[in-house]
Amino acid sequence: MNRVFIKTYGCQMNERDSEAVAAMLRARGYRIVADEADCDILLLNTCSVRDAAEQKAIGKAGYLQKRKKKNPDFILGILGCMAQNRGAELLEKLPDLDLIIGTQKFHQVPGYLDNLRAARAAGVPVGETIVDIAEEAGSQNTIRDHVLMQDADAGAEAPPQVSAFVSIQQGCNMDCAFCIVPKTRGDERSRPMDEIVAECRALAERGVREITLLGQIVTSYGRRDYVHTDGVSPFVQLLDRVHALGGIERIRFTSPHPRGFKDDLVEAYGRLPKLCGYVHLPMQSGSNRILRAMNRPYTRERYREIVDALRAVRPDMYFSTDIIVGFPGETEEDFAQTRELFEAVNYDMAYIFKYSVRTGTPAATMADQVSEAVKESRNQALLDVLERNSVRRNATLLGHVEEVLVDGPDKTGRRFTGRTRGNRVAVFEANSRLIGQLVPLKIDRATPSTLYGELVLIGVESPESRVQSRTLSASVPRL
Ligand code: SAH
Ligand code: F3S
Prior knowledge:
Blueprint: E1 3-8, H1 12-27, E2 31-32, E3 41-46, H2 51-70, E4 75-80, H3 81-86, H4 90-93, E5 99-101, H5 109-121, E6 130-132, E7 163-167, E8 169-170, H6 181-185, E9 189-190, H7 193-205, E10 210-214, H8 234-243, E11 250-254, H9 263-271, E12 278-280, H10 288-293, H11 300-313, E13 318-325, H12 332-345, E14 349-354, H13 372-397, E15 401-409, E16 416-420, E17 425-428, E18 438-446, E19 450-455
Parallel strand pairs: 1-2, 1-3, 3-4, 4-5, 5-6, 7-10, 10-11, 12-13, 13-14, 17-19
Antiparallel strand pairs: 8-9, 15-16, 15-18, 16-17, 18-19
Helix pairs in contact: 9-11, 12-13
């Protein structure tokens, strides 16, 4: 009765929260299972950022209620953003839920499950749904436990985990007019810098080579808790400290805000080789009029300046972005501006969203909502540009050697996957001893989303050759 399956919707922050819940549950004697059919307790960790994400989770929970009807001991819970956003109102559609737990209460999940199971074991009739979506001071510090792959039920033979997410900050105070996150995640709260650095050090000791620092607005990290020193923001101070840790080879972060790209951060890309040359820089719109309506505090000109400054420091910088098409009032002229900036920046990756009405946000009640058909065609127009960019960028990689961090076997189990510093997925033949190593890969083929190539290691065992091997990572040139 203690087998738990957690299904996660949404962003990397949610993935990280699920990981922490799993770690806490394991510490209490629960088993985390990989197959939904095998569980006694099913937790949906949800997303509210667009309506489609909420509908998906509601549909899934509705379906799972049938399982509850057959087996009254089955426990079903909704965690995270949608729980926070909708609270007890979810019971109108989903009356059989056992738990509704908000974003500041993940650490309470084990306790609530213990209570539910004890009540069931004692034969107490199923009571009211537990709803806990209150704010809790200090809750940002509770997301720190990691369940790494090698610790999980996969067993001792599981390959070591190479990349880990580290939560540094939660919540957002920017109040973009379209965004539900300030409601679902609350006020900006940062974790103490020493704790984050200690966590990264511990991960490095367990074999992690790549750290992704996570938060809703990471560039604002620590702005209320630490002072700037010599013009260096607390966020850049944190980057410096993580960079100094032995064992960590790559540092990434998400999500930043353009406002956070002052000189100190741009310069950090010149100083810190472990900082991967891939920047996610959410543009949202290329029209100054729409940016103002969105309450985004920058102009298209300032945005372009940031891109140019970063490219000046790292000419091969990769860029990705978030764009919303069809924000209320967006005219053809506004969209043309977005498209122009989108083409000019030449993104390697982009997340393009059709504006979705979020009740309770200022944009929900704005005049001139844009039709679905128009949103769709603008969405498609940007996707076409993106595909062309991606093909063009990949073509420049053909025949070149890229540094790849070997992640593990691919889905087929026959080849291996890794990522380049520019965050491109690469697939290649390798040896499991190379997992966690930085290796040079000569790219010989590319699709818009994936690179294929061959390792250029001498004397390393390939599946066919079975040559005696040793792994070479230190000699990899920085690319
Ligand atoms: N900084 C946050 C942003 C969260 S939302 C983070 O990544 O943690 C992620 C993206 O979803 C936003 O950048 C925006 O492009 C998009 N988005 C947010 N609200 C939206 C809405 N109402 N409709 C469509 N897209 C939205
Ligand atoms: Fe949302 Fe804007 Fe913050 S997109 S998460 S309110 S920076």
